[in-house]
Amino acid sequence: MATETFQRIYRAPCPGCGAPVEFRSASSLYAVCSYCKSTVVREGEVLSRVGKMAEVFEDHSPLQLMASGRWQGRAFTLVGRLQYRGPSGPWAEWIALTDDGTPHFLAEDNGSYVFTSPAEAGRALPLFTSSFRVGANTAIAGKTYEVTSNEEVALVSAQGELPKLPPMNQPFAMIEMRSADGEVLAIDYGSVPPQLTRGRAVALDELQITGLREEVAAEQKGRQFACPNCGAPVEVHLDASKSITCGSCHSVIDLAAGLGGELHHVEQEEAFEPFIPLGSMGQLQGAQWQVVGYQHRLGHDPQDEDEEKFGWDEYLLFNRKRGFIFLVDTSEGWSIVKPTTGAPAYKDGASSASYLGATYQLKYSYSAETTYVAGEFYWPVMRGQKSFNRDFQKGRNLLSLEETPRERTWSAGSMVTSDLVGAAFNIKDKMAGRGDAGPLSGGAGGVKGGMGCFSIFLMLFIILILIALLRACEGGSGSSGYRTGGGSFGGYSSGGSHK
């Protein structure tokens, strides 16, 4: 974008090294010198040095300073970046300056993007963030939102031109809320008074961004370390990864503390072989995806711990511009899902949920547990992680809710055919005998034909069920309303893009 579209650019020598420092927006008070990394504050026509900024960490983002695009018909340029770290890991917030000099924000978290603008609450915000309980509904500016995150975060680095600058490495509260129509609202308690922003999830292609970085993710050399269990070399390819498995001993290694910190690990006794090999590349939804993670999960009726369990597989796929999605393989077929931006309308105990104008019927409720993981994950996945799941369906469209004591995660997607998956990953021969059945009466998903990864178990399970039904035919057991087969429509998530 040509600089003439901005208001008058203010340029002055850095008080630390003398290099030129520019301010394109009249509302920007801070900047980080690109040469000496001094943090400077603007007071009228004078720049003062207030300290030195830490180097930004490599997050393999395709974005960079001075990349430009369009949002809702207005041109913008990325002039600054703030990097935060919280309990769920690091994320970045880019300052997107529109052609009239107004700063907006492009938040980036695990490959997902949310474009937001400054907003007004319409009322005084609570002084204590405990008022925002996760899962509760609250009204802001006359609109109802569900509180999806209430965390303490800290600013760890920054670059470029900045309208705000919270104290470095000092925790402050960040509240996130989402509406049923996909709107994201954030309250930043790192400013006084708290700063409110409102926006929606976007795709980079939608923003028509030019000036992106080259393919750094594919070319970046992996970071290596020795497995804390067996000593074998382990290579991390994605900077956002919070956990990884050792290819030699299959231990799950927690990377939350970073490679320089203590590496905790959990051994896995039994190894599963993913049907789609890790590292495979596949064309889905008009984009090229790489299989970076795999997990096997088991489900069961939460009211009957002795009931036979059912299993399914989830593949974590990564695309540089689109972030992460899940490819799910269950006994009812394949599906592609992604954590939602909005919070579907649902009341606990209800038989349906509404999302983006569509009503989904509850099909299954069950407890889920992760039993095996392989590859890299953007959240700290571990064997034994548990959640309570509810699966909803409307035709071939799917909606899933996963609950843990700390969060509620919604995912949405749709069923796909095994032929499509086979063609995408060039495994048509392996798909032989795994055809797809049509929709079930009542609108449930298609049932996978042929033999799956756990076909022997399923056959034995069906035989046992038939025997039990024959023995109990006099009284009839009826339906408990809980899932007795198939798998989760959704994929486990740390919350998706939420900053």
Helix count equals 3
Q: Whole-Å distance between the termini?
A: 26 Å
- Find the count of extended strands (DSSP E, 2+ residues): 30
Mind summarizing the main beta sheet? 8 strands, antiparallel, barrel
Low-confidence stretches: 1-7, 215-221, 437-458, 472-488, 490-499
Strand content: 35-45%
Q: Radius of gyration over alpha carbons?
A: 25 Å
Overall mean pLDDT: 77
Structure class: mainly beta
Apparent shape = globular
Describe the structure concisely for a colleague:
Helices cover 6% and strands 44% of the residues.
Description:
This protein is mainly beta and 499 residues long. The chain has 3 helices and 30 strands. It has an 8-stranded antiparallel beta barrel.
Structure characteristics:
globular, disordered N terminus, mainly beta, 8-stranded antiparallel beta barrel, 30 strands, 499 residues
Which helices and strands, and how do they pair?
Layout: E1 10-13, E2 20-23, E3 30-32, E4 38-43, E5 46-52, E6 68-71, E7 74-86, E8 89-98, E9 103-109, E10 112-118, E11 137-140, E12 143-162, E13 172-178, E14 183-188, E15 195-202, H1 216-219, E16 223-226, E17 233-236, E18 243-245, E19 252-254, E20 264-266, E21 281-284, E22 287-300, E23 310-319, E24 323-330, E25 333-339, E26 352-355, E27 358-377, E28 386-394, E29 397-403, E30 408-416, H2 418-424, H3 455-471
Antiparallel strand pairs: 1-2, 3-4, 3-12, 4-5, 6-7, 7-8, 7-12, 8-9, 9-10, 10-15, 11-12, 12-13, 13-14, 14-15, 16-17, 18-19, 18-27, 19-20, 21-22, 22-23, 22-27, 23-24, 24-25, 25-30, 26-27, 27-28, 28-29, 29-30
